[in-house]
Design a protein that fits this description.
- The protein folds into two domains: 215 residues, Rossmann fold, CATH 3.40.50; 96 residues, Methionyl-tRNA Fmet Formyltransferase, Chain A, domain 2 (Roll), CATH 3.10.25.10.
- Helix 1 packs parallel to helix 2 and helix 5 runs antiparallel to helix 7.
- With 330 residues, it is α/β, with parallel strands linked by helices.
């Protein structure tokens, strides 16, 4: 007995592929779009792409299209870049595409009811976590910060509550000990594309069931700000080490030394007990740069000074920019 709502029962036949409108913005979504466009034409057809308007990017702050817009252009897909999702001009253009399904992957805005009601079957989201864990805007960073051993993707039907819709499909992925935000995004983009195509295939054949989320297990993430990456050396070493991975490549875990900012790109938890020193104190420079934390010690591996290239912490120390007894600011 199918638990899914009536709108998930596809009436298409093998000669009528699902008409898909794709909504997304960053690189993760662009990877999913590229894979989606390679899906068997008997299953689906991407009829249009919706992405955020061009934004100022780079040092020159020139207007540049989103990663999704660039991929759509390369694929020859029509692109809509609405300033306002409730604008009648955009809604009319969306309805003209006659979508069976709207697929959303990291679009970056909450969708109004008029958009959610546009597809014949359902609006579907590709979320980069195992829902209901890590709902919200930063599930990848959230999984690394929490020390989760496993992450994954969830294909879910979108409702009027953020990331709370019923689950259509889940796929798990073990996290490597050195997993960074960047590496995990790439892995989950590929896994998300595979799971999405599988879900749409099942939907095409009227075989896609859904399961309500367990609200008692829900956790939440918030959008990452640059200030979130400032290291508090009173925190345990394991927490700070996770920060270096969760915020790599952006916004990058950071501290200050003698009033100057220092980016910490890579670090590890030292396999020894804490000392009596104050949190943030540089205990030694050799054989590795070791810093006292609120609990445990952190070994700095790769750092970067403002306007300089990334170098090993040992080389940074040899340049006399770090001394034993110095204290990194909290």
């Amino acid at each position: 007995m199918r638990s899914g709502p009536p709108q998930l029962d596809s009436e298409n036949n093998a000669d009528s592929p699902l008409r898909v409108v794709f909504m997304g913005t960053p690189a993760l979504a662009a990877e999913i779009l590229a894979r989606l466009a390679e899906a068997p034409p008997a299953i689906l057809h991407v009829v249009s792409v919706v992405t955020r308007p061009d934004a100022e990017r780079g040092r020159g702050l020139s207007l540049s299209p989103s990663e999704v817009a660039r991929v759509a252009g390369r694929l020859g897909l029509p692109v809509l870049k609405p300033e306002k999702l409730r604008a009648e001009e955009f809604l009319a253009a969306l309805r003209e595409t006659r979508p069976d399904v709207i697929v959303v992957a990291a679009y970056g805005r909450i969708l109004p009811a008029a958009v959610l009601e546009a597809p014949r079957l359902a609006p579907i989201n590709v979320h980069a976590s195992l829902l209901p864990r890590h709902r919200g805007a930063a599930p990848i960073e959230g999984a690394i910060l929490a020390g989760d051993p496993v992450s994954g993707v969830t294909i879910m039907r979108i409702t009027d509550r953020v990331d709370a819709g019923p689950i259509l499909l889940k796929r798990e992925l073990p996290l490597a000990a050195d997993e960074t935000q960047g590496s995990l995004k790439q892995k989950l983009a590929l896994l998300g594309a595979e799971a999405l195509i599988e879900a749409l295939t099942l939907l095409e054949h009227g075989q896609l069931d859904e399961t309500p989320q367990d609200e008692s297990l829900a956790t939440y993430t918030k959008p990452v700000q640059k200030g979130d990456a400032i290291i508090d050396w009173n925190a345990p070493a394991v927490t700070i080490e996770r920060m270096t991975r969760a915020y790599n490549p952006w916004p990058v875990a950071r501290t200050t030394i003698a009033g100057s900012e220092l980016l910490i790109w890579q670090a590890s938890v030292a396999d020894e007990d804490s000392h009596e020193a104050q949190p943030g104190a540089v205990l030694r420079l050799s054989p590795q740069v070791t810093v006292q934390c609120g609990r445990g010690l952190l070994t700095l591996i790769e750092v970067q000074a403002p306007g300089r290239r990334r170098i090993s912490a040992a080389d940074f120390a040899r340049g006399k920019r770090l001394t034993e007894g110095a204290r990194l600011a909290t």
